[in-house]
Amino acid sequence: MSHELRTPLNLIIGFSTAMVEHPEMYDNQPLPQLYHDDVAEIRRSSKHLLGLINDILDLAKVEAGRLELHTRLITLDGLLYEALKTGEGLLIGRPIKLRREFEPGLAPVMADEGRVRQVLLNLLSNASKFTDAGEIGLGARSNDRELVVWVRDSGIGIASADQPRIFGEFEQVEHEESKQRGGTGLGLSICRWLIQMHGGRMWVESTAGKGSVFYFALPLATMASLPQPEELIAQAA
Ligand code: ADP
Q1: Distance CA 217, CA 198 (A)
Q2: Which is deepest, 79, 170, 216, 226, by most CB within 10 Å?
Q3: Model's pTM, two decimal places?
Q4: 166, 193, 203: which to mutate for ligand 1, most atoms within 8 A of CB?
Q5: Is residue 58 pLDDT above 90, yes or no?
Q6: Which of 62, 124, 126, 214 has most ligand 1 atoms within 8 Å of CB, for mutation?
Q7: Which residue is closest in CA terms to ligand 1's atom 7?
Q8: CA-to-CA distance for 99 and 149, rounded, in angstroms?
Q9: Ligand 1 mean position, distance from CA 204 (Å)
Q10: Could you give phi then psi for residue 209, rounded to 5 degrees?
Q11: For the CA atoms of 128, 203, 108, 225, what is the dihedral angle to 10 degrees?
Q12: What does the DSSP 8-state code read for residue 181?
């Protein structure tokens, strides 16, 4: 199912990208301007559709209990620096300062690196989408039980009445300001599922008009949660 949906869409994205960005694939003949904007729009929309399909497929897997985590012992340092780089890209030319609010050398957790990356990017892209000016911070700190990670923004914020439902599927806050900002309302529900599958939790603190802080906490790796020698041998085989 996922293959049938993604393959044709990747083809549309691939060819429209080539037409807009790689005239060398067409005997160096650039796309005439008259076509350029429409093809660029095909590309933008198909990328959006791919994001949506990926989200829906993830959700279907979660609901069917078929989403598997591939956890290993990691520290999130690398992922957080990588996310900062992505954040810089999202904020180029915009009056928003990106702040690092963690010190390297974070306590290790048992986690699926790809899925934690997905959550971080989702939160950062929301922060960037709902902030016009000010700052966005990416931070992490551990206590004796868990590693708490946050993405903080000085954006439009979320009224307290809306806060519980934004983690629900297809839920978006209806107001003038967020209407133009797109999205599907699936990102946060998938993020919360993914974090809960790690034995963690996710929540938000926000003030309308002032900004939001999205947090997630992952349990720290303990001796008991580490892979046992026989599992390591099986993994290596
Ligand atoms: P999407 O962003 O695709 O609509 P999400 O599930 O990621 O879906 O978010 C759900 C809703 O929560 C958004 O539509 C928006 O109304 C609100 N939201 C999420 N992140 C933020 C944020 N950083 N600032 C303000 N509102 C937010």
Answers
A1: 9
A2: 216
A3: 0.82
A4: 166
A5: no
A6: 126
A7: 187
A8: 14
A9: 11
A10: 85, -10
A11: -140
A12: T
Ligand 1 centroid to residue 75 C-alpha, Å? 27
Q: Which residue has the higher pLDDT, 39 or 64?
A: 39
| CA of 172 relative to ligand 1 center, distance in Å | 6
Q: How many other CB atoms sit within 10 Å of the CB of residue 172? A: 18
SS (H, E, C) 88-130: HHHHCCCCEEEEEECCCCCCCEEECHHHHHHHHHHHHHHHHHC
Distance 123 CA to ligand 1 centre (A): 9
CB atoms within 10 A of CB 28: 8
Distance (Å, whole) CA 87 – CA 128: 8
Residue 193's closest CA among 128, 124, 115? 115
How far does residue 228's CA lie from ligand 1's centre (Å)?
40
Q: Tell me which of 1 and 43 has the higher pLDDT.
A: 43
- The response to whether residue 172 sits with its C-beta less than 6 Å from ligand 1 reads yes
| 135 φ/ψ angles, rounded to the nearest 5 degrees | -150, 160
- pLDDT on residue 217: 98
pLDDT band at 230; cut points 50, 70, 90: confident
Looking up tokens 């989408």 gives 129
**Nearest residue by C-alpha to atom 9 in ligand 1:** 185
